[in-house]
Write a structure and sequence with these properties.
CATH superfamily of the largest domain: N-(1-d-carboxylethyl)-l-norvaline Dehydrogenase, domain 2
Strand content: 5-15%
Order of helices and strands: HEHEEHEHEHHHHH
Radius of gyration: 19 Å
Largest sheet: 3 strands, mixed
Helix content: 40-55%
Structural class: mainly alpha
Distance between the termini: 41 Å
Number of strands: 5
CATH topology of the largest domain: N-(1-d-carboxylethyl)-l-norvaline Dehydrogenase, domain 2
Number of domains: 2
CATH class of the largest domain: Mainly Alpha
Length: 226
């Protein structure tokens, strides 16, 4: 079971010469890749695992450190349905929900979609919070007011309050979400999908990186629009 930062880290975990996990897989083993990685990498790894007479599932998660600590992650499992059923008890202590979402790689596709949606909402709330402040609202007041409306999901309302408080203690960093946006845009290009919203969100996060905020929490995006 692997949960690391990106394709390169996952490749090292599984395929590093002599010490990669693939070299120790026994026939019949179920390997779980829970990282947020590209569907292309998952399918490549799947072929290598299959050659070792084992089974790979991609099982990325929605949620961050607080959800992991509370056992409230949502797993998006792609791959063989029978293997997915077998791993449900293993994931149960970490999970509020365990969803089998299709063939190998579909977990990665859905996870990138979820993160792109989160990024687009963060970009919107950051720029609109900046708008409100420049039009007479105090930042904390503006964030609290936004949280009252049903269109603002609780995680986004919470992010707005962190932005207003200038709380950038890292839970989910700007570098990581920019990586996820680059992955979904690469996948979209390869599959002919058009993602102008994700392109716009990535541009905003890259502006934050240019300000030296890559290792800040995603709430640091508000600095772009201050």
């Amino acid at each position: 079971m692997s949960m690391v930062t990106d394709d390169a880290a996952a490749r090292s975990v599984w395929l590093e010469a002599e010490i990669g996990a693939l070299h120790g897989l026994k026939a019949g083993t179920i390997a779980l890749e829970c990282s947020t990685v590209t569907p292309a990498w998952i399918r490549k790894l799947g072929r290598a695992v299959e050659a070792a007479r084992a089974t790979l599932l991609d099982a990325p998660v929605a949620g961050s450190r607080p959800q992991a600590e509370a056992g409230e992650l949502v797993f998006m499992i792609g791959g063989d349905a029978e293997a997915a059923e077998r791993v449900l008890p293993v994931l149960a202590p970490l999970a509020a929900n365990r969803l089998h979402v299709g063939a190998l790689g579909q977990g990665a596709v859905l996870k990138l979609t979820v993160n792109a949606l989160f990024a687009a909402q963060l970009e919107s709330v950051a720029e609109l919070l900046g708008f409100l402040v420049k039009n007479g609202f105090e930042a904390n007041e503006a964030a609290s007011l936004l949280a009252n409306f049903p269109i603002v999901a609780p995680p986004i309302g919470g992010a707005a309050k962190m932005m207003a408080a200038k709380n950038t203690v890292p839970i989910f960093t700007i570098d990581l979400i920019e990586k996820d946006l680059s992955y979904i845009l690469d996948t979209a290009r390869d599959t002919g999908a058009d993602l102008p919203g994700a392109t716009s969100a990535r541009a905003a996060f890259r502006r934050a990186q240019a300000k030296g905020l890559g290792q800040a929490n995603v709430s640091g995006l508000s600095a772009v629009f201050a």
